[in-house]
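Take a specimen:
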Amino acid sequence: MEIIFKEFTIKTKRKYEIVDLTNEVENFVRNSNIKEGICLIFLPHATTCLIANENEENLKEDIIEKIKKDFEGNWRHNFIDDNASAHLASSYLKQFLIFPIKDSELIRGTWQRILLIELDRSRERKVIIEILGKK
């Protein structure tokens, strides 16, 4: 078994933004020469999250509207950082995704993309990819 690690950063531009990471992750998996295993994508942040879903503009707007509807409010944490909704949303969503790898390719659904959701404001975000598998 081998473990291969990559870390990169992206810069988000808005409080609510969805960024497609699929190509970056798939290129890393392909170039890793791992034939079979698993791929972990992880965000070491408390105000962003990852989902696997379709990268379609109307759906992305719907996802953001649902997050706003469910999590924006007059929360106590806002007196400290004014980002309680981001912390709450990321607590209910997740900061990681795991995909199987077969023949050096991620196994994912036809429309599934790896999407980072920015929940706070324009920030530089770390993305960690770790592959565990065999060549």
